[in-house]
DNA sequence: TATGAAAGACCGCTCCC
DNA sequence: GGGAGCGGTCTTTCATA
């Protein structure tokens, strides 16, 4: 199911669908000069290959009141506590992404909060109370100048 | 256009659309026990309020061959070179996200590459040749145990 | 002002070429 | 990969509370 080689048509479909996942297949077909049936076949193929996982709305978090995006590098007391820590982080709704990384930190997370106060509360009352965590480093995102979702 | 307060119905719509943006409005209406017209009105309202930015397919980068996800913290020689550096980073297709942050790094970027070799090439031949950059720190993501797209 | 119902146009899915 | 048919969906309008 993996490593299916996509051709230019597949690529064009992905690009179009990345801009607007709700575009009618018929319109897409016209734009790419193929038939609607073909689009359908290709999309199904990419779904089966696990390339297309699904469709999502992109929500502007800022306009919903979540103004503060922040990255937090976490160091654990013991590396073996990783699974337990992830479980605890998962229970915190402000944690939107988590990565297990090599380098300076054991775990690296991204958080979305409504304000700096909210972030501070999150850090003090939720994250730093996790006993497996030794220390944290906070990187507040002031700007997000690049945010791509298309791959070459 | 901002700070429009969403109610429970809007929230349910967003949640459903986040799981599957292509769900028929009629089905969504049935699930939420309202009429299809209402769904349509609400979605339009949230689009106008800038809450819904659009719809996207979620692509599994791994199945496309992009196996290595990596974060790179960048320090600049001079803080004022930020805009110029962003411009140069933007031209690098492997750079999928960039943040201007407070804390340890000036700029923080996320990259997607096909392999460790590819990552190494990216670092040496592309990123570290940007003259405004003083130093970089690389955090290779080994796992991505949390990846939410729903907000509370 | 926001919701609900219905009608027509449009689209997606499936088959066969 | 292309083309046509049927079943279903989206959108719009109008009436209502």
Query: What oligomeric state is this?
Result: homodimer
User: Looking at this structure, what is the CATH superfamily of the largest domain in chain A?
Assistant: Lrp/AsnC effector binding domain/regulation of amino acid metabolism (RAM) domain
- Could you spell the SSE succession of chain A in H and E letters? HHHEEHEEHE
Helix content of chain A: 25-40%
Largest interface, counted with CB-CB under 8 A?
Answer: A-B, 66 and 65 residues
GO biological process, one term (chains A, B): regulation of DNA-templated transcription
GO molecular function, one term (chains A, B): sequence-specific DNA binding
Domain HTH asnC-type (chains A, B): 6-67
Protein name (chains A, B): Transcriptional regulator, AsnC family
Question: Could you walk me through the main structural features you see in this protein, from its secondary elements to its overall organization?
Answer:
- Two copies of one chain form a homodimer.
- Chain A is of the alpha+beta class and 152 residues long.
- Chain A folds into two domains: 8-48, Winged helix-like DNA-binding domain superfamily/Winged helix DNA-binding domain (Arc Repressor Mutant, subunit A), CATH 1.10.10.10; 62-141, Lrp/AsnC effector binding domain/regulation of amino acid metabolism (RAM) domain (Alpha-Beta Plaits, 2-Layer Sandwich).
- Chain A has five helices and five strands, in the order H-H-H-E-E-H-E-E-H-E.
- Chain A has helices at residues 8-19, 25-32, 36-48, 82-90, 116-127, and strands spanning 52-59, 68-76, 95-101, 107-113, 133-147.
- Chain A has a four-stranded antiparallel sheet.
- In chain A, a hairpin with a 5-residue loop joins strand 3 and strand 4 (107-113).
- Chain A is elongated.
- The two termini of chain A are 21 Å apart.
- At the A-B interface, helix 1, strand 1, helix 4, strand 3 and strand 4 of A face helix 1, strand 1, helix 4, strand 3 and strand 4 of B.
- Strand 1 (52-59) of chain A pairs antiparallel with strand 1 (52-59) of chain B.
- The structure holds a DNA duplex (17 and 17 nucleotides).
- Chains A, B: InterPro entries: ArsR-like_HTH, AsnC-type_HTH_dom, Dimeric_a/b-barrel, HTH-Siroheme_Decarb, Tscrpt_reg_AsnC-like, Tscrpt_reg_AsnC/Lrp_C, Tscrpt_reg_HTH_AsnC-type_CS, WH-like_DNA-bd_sf.
- Chains A, B: This is Transcriptional regulator, AsnC family.
- Chains A, B: It comes from Pseudoalteromonas denitrificans DSM 6059.
């Amino acid at each position: 199911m993996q490593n299916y080689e996509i051709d230019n048509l597949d690529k064009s479909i992905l690009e179009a669908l990345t801009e607007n996942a709700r575009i009618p297949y018929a319109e897409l077909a016209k734009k790419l000069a193929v038939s609607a049936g073909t689009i359908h076949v290709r999309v199904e193929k990419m779904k089966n290959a696990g390339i297309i996982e699904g469709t999502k709305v992109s929500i502007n978090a800022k306009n919903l009141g979540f103004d503060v995006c922040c990255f937090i590098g976490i160091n654990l007391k013991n590396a073996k506590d990783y699974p337990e820590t992830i479980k605890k982080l998962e229970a915190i709704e402000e944690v939107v992404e988590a990565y297990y990384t090599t380098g300076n930190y054991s775990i690296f997370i991204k958080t979305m909060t409504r304000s700096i106060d909210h972030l501070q509360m999150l850090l003090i009352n939720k994250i730093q109370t996790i006993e497996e965590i030794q220390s944290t480093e906070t990187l507040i995102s002031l700007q997000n100048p690049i945010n791509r979702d298309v791959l070459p």
